[in-house]
Amino acid sequence: MDNFNKQYGFAAVETVVVTPILILLFVIIVDVGRVMYHSLSTAAAARAAAAYGAQSTSFISDAAGMASIAKQDGVSLGKTAENPDIFIVNSSQYCVCVNGSTKFTGCVQSDLDTCSSGHERYVSVTVGRTFETLMNYQLVPSTIALSETAVLRVE
Distance between CA atoms of 110 and 119, rounded to whole angstroms? Predict the structure, then answer.
């Protein structure tokens, strides 16, 4: 019977040692999942804003509209009264000659006249946000800057 009590005591010591490690691993796994979710949501917001801007040439210069669409798409990502604008949205447009030889920023008509075979317009939207981990880990930053860019051709 004495040997059984020693085994029972050893199991209790193992539990005390292993439980905090398992809890820490669980929290780290949850944080990695949260980073992935927020990164995918940031990419989706960039795609939604780029899709809005790519509808036609009249939408391509509507930076406020693209920012609004991106912010609406990411509304579930921690938007609170203290932090209403969690996204930083930057949009730009550029043109490329159809043969791919030249890229023009801003699509000025005098530049586009040099394209003998025509040109295509593109809208580029970059959405950025700051992600905060659940707890501070050593050797890992507690805030991570997430940034995603979507580029679509304007119809």
Answer: 12
pLDDT in tens, the chain (155 residues): 555 556 667 778 888 899 999 998 999 899 999 889 989 989 999 999 999 999 988 888 888 999 888 888 776 665 544 555 677 889 988 888 887 777 787 777 777 777 777 888 889 999 998 888 888 888 888 888 999 999 998 87
Distance CA 40, CA 13 (A): 42
CA angle 82, 88, 92 (to 5 degrees): 155
Degrees to nearest 5, angle at CA 58 with 46 and 62: 45
Provide the 3-class DSSP secondary structure of residue 101: coil
Q: Is the dihedral of CA 25, 28, 34, 37 positive or negative?
A: negative
Dist CA 47 CA 34 (whole Å): 20
CB 49 within 8 A of CB 64: no
Total structural domains within the chain: 1
Q: Which domain holds residue 115?
A: 2-153
What is the DSSP secondary structure assignment for residue 142, as one 8-state letter?
S
